[in-house]
């Protein structure tokens, strides 16, 4: 945690001409959760604007956008809110609207609002009409409850396999640096082909869906993403399957 903060502090200090920083709150490869609130405050002191990508954190954890402190935030609404693919949102702090040039086609009242800053083309209205129901369900369950459930499921399988000598859990154990998503790598299995094979074995032999991810230091990996409807029994079966695969 402290190392991440030091990394960003050093990067900003060594690059004084930087004026815009893009942060991904929770990464899609390993589920690493970056301390965006602290980094945003750090950047603000150095007159650096921050755009925060909360595609994988909004709905996975209970977050307050205002608390993050960023003036610009991008949302995905199908990953953890449960709306159909294609739904998203953007936040621009009201005081910063004037700093963003309006879309050339914007006119009249649009010039004073956020929708005048983005040209989306033809909108899938059917998808947008699902949003009230998706948010209603999310709020009914409760953001803190969802986060607690996903963290519980994540920890449940990690605790059962972390003793394996040939398995590396890539996502930090520090609670401040992860939520529900976590990735692993088996010793010597660093190629995309290797990790696709593990994903296929989990699906075909054990009926467990995971996904491979590339672009991680030292090779590809397998990402495990529990959902709200994933049961503890499902997770225990996965841990058992992973232990069996690790022994082969």
From TrEMBL:
Residues covered by the Aminotransferase class V domain: 15-212
Short name of any one Pfam family annotated for the protein: Aminotran_5
Enzyme class label: transferase
GO molecular function: cysteine desulfurase activity
Keyword terms: Pyridoxal phosphate, Transferase
Enzyme Commission number(s) of this protein: 2.8.1.7
Name recorded for this polypeptide: Cysteine desulfurase
């Amino acid at each position: 945690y402290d190392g991440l903060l030091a990394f960003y502090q050093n990067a900003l200090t060594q690059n004084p001409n930087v004026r815009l920083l893009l942060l991904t709150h929770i990464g899609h490869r390993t589920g690493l959760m970056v301390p965006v609130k602290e980094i945003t405050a750090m950047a603000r002191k150095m007159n650096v604007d921050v755009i925060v990508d909360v595609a994988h954190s909004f709905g996975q954890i209970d977050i307050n956008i205002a608390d993050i402190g960023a003036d610009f935030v991008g949302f995905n609404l199908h990953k953890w809110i449960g709306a159909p693919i294609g739904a998203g949102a953007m936040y621009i702090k009201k005081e910063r609207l004037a700093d963003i040039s309006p879309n050339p086609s914007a006119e009249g009242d649009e010039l004073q609002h956020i929708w005048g800053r983005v040209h989306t083309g033809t909108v899938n209205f059917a998808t947008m009409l699902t949003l009230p129901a998706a948010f209603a369900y999310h709020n009914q369950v409760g953001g803190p409850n969802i986060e607690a459930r996903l963290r519980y499921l994540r920890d449940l399988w990690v605790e059962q396999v972390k003793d394996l000598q040939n398995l590396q859990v890539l996502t930090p154990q520090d609670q401040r640096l992860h939520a529900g998503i976590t990735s692993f790598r088996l010793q010597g299995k660093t190629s995309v082909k290797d990790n696709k094979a593990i994903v296929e074995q989990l699906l075909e032999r054990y009926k467990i869906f995971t996904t491979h991810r590339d672009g991680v230091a030292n090779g590809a990996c397998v990402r495990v993403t529990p959902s709200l409807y994933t049961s503890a029994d499902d997770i225990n079966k996965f841990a058992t399957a992973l232990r069996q695969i690790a022994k082969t």
